[in-house]
Write a structure and sequence with these properties.
With 85 residues, the protein is an all-alpha fold. Helix content is 26%, strand content 0%. It has 3 helices and no strands. The structure holds iron/sulfur cluster (2 copies). One iron/sulfur cluster (SF4) binds next to helix 2.
Length: 85
C-alpha cells in the first residue's frame, strides 16, 4: 500500500476500457494513443486519464504477452467488447 508502481507504457489502459468522455468503446485503442504508447494529448487529457494510477494490475500485465494484455484487463474488470464472438 502506498508504494508507487511505475507505468510500463504497455498502452493497455488506453485500449481496453471504455472511456465515455472520449467516445471510446471497450477494446478499441484511444484515438490519441501514439504508436509509442504515449498519450498524444497528454497536457489536455481528460480527468479520468489524469486520475488513473498504475497499480498491481500493471505489474501483472507485464508478465504476459502483449497480445494477452487487453483480454486480461477486460476479464479483470468484467468488460466485454461489442464484437465478441
Ligand atoms: S496498463 Fe498500466 S502499465 Fe500499461 S500503460 Fe496503463 S498505466 Fe501504464
Ligand atoms: S486520452 Fe491519452 S491517456 Fe487518455 S486514453 Fe487516450 S491516449 Fe490514453
Amino acid at each position: 500500500m502506498g508504494e508507487d508502481i511505475r507505468c510500463f507504457r504497455c498502452g493497455t489502459c488506453c485500449i481496453a476500457p471504455d472511456i465515455s468522455t472520449l467516445g471510446k468503446p471497450v477494446g478499441v485503442p484511444c484515438r490519441h494513443l501514439t504508436p509509442e504508447n504515449l498519450c498524444g494529448i497528454y497536457p489536455d487529457r481528460p480527468s479520468i486519464c489524469r486520475n488513473y494510477r498504475p497499480d498491481e494490475i500493471c505489474v501483472a500485465l507485464q508478465q504476459i504477452s502483449a497480445s494477452e494484455r487487453v483480454p486480461y484487463f477486460l476479464q479483470i474488470y468484467g468488460l466485454e467488447t461489442d464484437n465478441k464472438q
